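In this section we walk through a basic example: taking a raw amino acid sequence and producing a predicted 3D structure, encoded as discrete structure tokens. The instruction is simple. Fold the sequence below.
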Amino acid sequence: MKDVTIYSTTSCHYCALAKEFFKAHNIPYTEYNVGVDAQRRKEMVELSGQLGVPVIHAGDTVLVGFQEKLLSDLLLSQ
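The resulting token sequence is shown next.
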């Protein structure tokens, strides 16, 4: 299983959907709230090139936004 990290904010609807997806499929993940953590926000921008959330880092792949089909393909079809 790939290591999964989500960079999110508390008010982000798509972040909540992504976390619900992870929980529904028993995918462990690490969450960083970039709304309050400046260092993780900087890390997210360096990783993705933007400030939009969610940013999901799984293995060598970085996804911006909640893209359920891509997440399924990446994390569930192993």
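Looking at the output, two observations stand out. The first helix runs from residue 13 to 24. The mean pLDDT is 95. In the next section we compare this with other chains.
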